[in-house]
Amino acid sequence: MITWNSEAEYFKGIGKIGFEGQGTDNPLAFRWYNPDQLVAGKKMKDHLRFAGAYWHSFCGNGSDPFGGPTHLFPWDVKSDPLDRAKAKMDAAFEFLSKMNLPYYCFHDVDVIDYGNDIIENEKRMQLMTDYARAKQAETGIKLLWGTANLFSHRRYMNGAATNPDFHVLTHAAAQVKAALDATIALDGENYVFWGGREGYMTLLNTDMKREQEHLAKFLHAAKDYARKNGFRGTFFIEPKPCEPTKHQYDYDAATVLGFLRQYNLLDDFKLNLEVNHATLAGHTFQHELQVAADAGKLGSIDANRGDYQNGWDTDQFPNNLNEVTEAMLIILEAGGLQGGGINFDARIRRNSTDPADLFHAHIGGMDTFARALLIADNILQHSEYKKVRADRYVSYDSGKGKVFEKGGLNLEDLRDYALSNGEPKTISGKQEYLENLINRYI
Q: EC class of this enzyme (predicted)?
């Protein structure tokens, strides 16, 4: 079990993690993440904008449905909630600083324990917002986004903004207001809505149309409040298909985009996409990224991975270079993330019980993304990757194909073209060639 016991320094013996290059044998150093290195006209740190996830790294205790905590943090020993919250924030900013993470993200209840008293909760959050503001000023670390936890409390067992009980919805609104106030006060660059229980377990007792209309009204109210109070950042929706509900209304990127269009929210919202949520929805992460990019709504990502043999959200740190390279190809071609960054919504394993394990996990994830960025840029700059794809659609670049794309052919015209030109030639999609190309650059 983790038994760290220093008041002044929580991660004793670990200094700032620096870039030492590929030749280093130091496990507490970056081999690929060189924050000031120029890639495709921008510094690496500006492409990636890494953030630490407050909830997994400083709140997750290693417990699971079959066993209790294995990570016993020294910042959790104080009995007073405010003292405990300050100790946790001290540890968080120590870690973020040592890891050279420029951003962090939080849920409201990660920062300070909430009870059932709204006034007391708001008071606690204000006190911790003041404390966080001082920490940010001291370290230069910024808030990438804030959010409210509207899924853990028992009152949200049937949802928050989609709850059939209006009284529950109002409690969700109170939490979101306080979380927005904190995000604005901390100069948070974005705000995320993750509908952890915005869905249903069975349609037998669910008015799905009404629940989605309530969710839209709730999001409009939150957006209007934030704008009125000076928030100029982006709102993100984070898709997730299921778990804990059977079906969630933010199932995947395409579903969320359809919802935003239907309820006139598209101008203010973009998507925050997570790898493990994509796989739970039956998609690749690349698919979800491309759907968002094609709509101009690729806002931010949560970096992790799932276990392909487990059907739930395992939130492991990313280490699959092929997958991350393919993701970075899409992100680079889309012009980068719009407002967001790469948040490590990932947790160390239950049996990873050394203080250094948290560092190893983040170093590996940051190096994987940095290396993938370099590989993806190299592929785009020096290979036939883009040409092979463009060549597949060359028949639409001139002649009748181009006329069709511009809307100039009717169904009879298309039939006449087929009749005049006979059977089409068989053209290879070159999938294996492209897979080999990526491996070659890796």
A: isomerase
